[in-house]
């Protein structure tokens, strides 16, 4: 068993163990991937202020996200096809999150269905829905999430149309993979992944296949999704989805203060400053750069979270210090899952937690809730360099 000390170690293992098609699916952004890259590199520009001789006993990284007690201010982001990164991936990630005391969000585009995940965990998880133009499907899936006991609905508002990721097109991404010669040659080097996949029946989009008439294979599914993303989305339709749910709502994918104002006015319990991990509008600024402006505009009215580029506990610290009540992580937990299954997700959470706790202590803070701008050094022009 290799010694894992950081998220990058998990990423290296992940790359070795998972078929190229699914590694590329996660490890890519849209078009030039500028936003995908800057989500991470912008974190590195922010520095921490070291303090000394501060009593660091009795520290706590615990806080609340949308009224839910969490071990640290980190939730697992919705990630489509998680069950292709490792067999039964959504169930494994949900179990790891539950044991660690952080929320898990199940994507609509998951491999394991809502009911299946619910049957394998004890506490409620969150469910993510896309803004589709099919009220009947929306109502049915929302009813299924309610019946499964989901405790919050994450509405992703930045995917009315799909950003192009070149590698997915070149690889012919599908679930399960189409057996072309290059795919078969690559699969031949991924034995443990293949054996585990053969051992599960969960290999299709569990929330959709069997629940939508006429969708039975990858080709009919992609035709269905392309047709269903709501190009005519507006604020009234978002409100309608919120009303259908009637419980806690998190709006994910907000990048402008004006949009954040609208989202807060609708009564969202939290807003996630997010550019979908750089997978949608390439050329958008990184989430960490947009966070302070949005937090300043609406931080008093609702909870502000962020995601995009978080690969360490220090990144979590920086986001919280810049005004996020919590963050979501996508790729960081996927690397762990692909590398080592449930144990790998736990490892990713442990790594991030330890880094957060130690960095907090060295910054002279004993509670994550007391982090603020005073803990950071921010280069001139970082926050107002773009007009
Ligand atoms: C492989 C992959 C699949 C994703 N699928 C979804 C999805 O189904 N629904 C959604 O709202 N966001 C999805 N996202 C975006 C994540 O929820 C999150 O915003 C993003 O991963 C954060 O960036 P990070 O990966 O750098 O942490 C996906 C991201 C990745 C990397």
From TrEMBL:
Its cofactor is FMN. InterPro entries: Aldolase_TIM, Alpha-hydoxy_acid_DH_FMN, FMN-dep_DH, FMN_HAD, FMN_hydac_DH_AS. SUPFAM superfamilies: FMN-linked oxidoreductases. Keywords: Flavoprotein, FMN, Oxidoreductase. Residues 1-381 form the FMN hydroxy acid dehydrogenase domain. It holds the Pfam family FMN_dh. Belongs to the FMN-dependent alpha-hydroxy acid dehydrogenase family. This is Alpha-hydroxy-acid oxidizing protein. It comes from Defluviimonas salinarum.
């Amino acid at each position: 068993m290799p010694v894992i000390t950081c998220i990058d170690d998990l990423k290296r293992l992940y790359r070795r163990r998972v078929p190229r098609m699914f590694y590329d699916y996660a490890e890519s952004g849209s078009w030039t991937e500028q936003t995908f890259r800057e989500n991470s590199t912008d974190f590195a520009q922010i520095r921490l202020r070291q303090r000394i001789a501060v009593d660091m006993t009795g520290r706590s990284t615990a806080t609340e996200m949308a009224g839910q007690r969490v071990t640290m201010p980190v939730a697992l982001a919705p990630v489509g096809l998680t069950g292709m990164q490792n067999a039964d991936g959504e169930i494994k990630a949900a179990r790891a999150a539950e044991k660690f005391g952080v929320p898990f969000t199940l994507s609509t585009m998951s491999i394991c269905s809502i009911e299946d995940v619910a049957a394998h965990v004890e506490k409620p998880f969150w469910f993510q829905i896309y803004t589709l133009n099919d009220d009947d499907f929306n109502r049915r899936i929302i009813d299924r999430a309610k019946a499964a006991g989901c405790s919050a609905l994450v509405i992703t508002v930045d995917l009315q149309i799909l950003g192009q990721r070149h590698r997915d097109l070149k690889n012919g991404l599908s679930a399960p993979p189409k057996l072309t010669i290059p795919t078969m040659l690559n699969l031949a080097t991924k034995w443990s992944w293949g054996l585990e996949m053969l051992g599960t029946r969960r290999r299709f989009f569990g929330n959709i296949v069997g629940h939508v008439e006429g969708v039975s294979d990858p080709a009919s599914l992609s035709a269905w999704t392309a047709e269903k993303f709501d190009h005519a989305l507006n604020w009234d339709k978002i409100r309608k989805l919120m009303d259908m749910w009637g419980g806690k709502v998190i709006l994910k994918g907000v990048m402008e203060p004006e949009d954040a104002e609208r989202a807060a006015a609708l009564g969202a319990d939290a807003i996630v400053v997010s550019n979908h991990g750089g997978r949608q509008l390439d050329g958008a600024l990184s989430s960490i750069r947009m966070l302070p402006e949005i937090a300043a505009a609406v931080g008093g009215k609702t909870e502000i979270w962020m995601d995009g580029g978080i690969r360490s506990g220090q990144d979590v610290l920086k986001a919280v210090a810049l005004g996020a009540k919590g963050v979501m992580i996508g790729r960081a937990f996927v690397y762990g899952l692909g590398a080592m299954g449930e144990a790998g997700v736990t490892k990713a959470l442990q790594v991030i937690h330890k880094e957060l706790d130690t960095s907090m202590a060295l910054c002279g803070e004993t509670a994550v809730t007391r982090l603020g701008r005073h803990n950071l050094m921010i280069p001139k022009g970082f926050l107002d360099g773009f007009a």
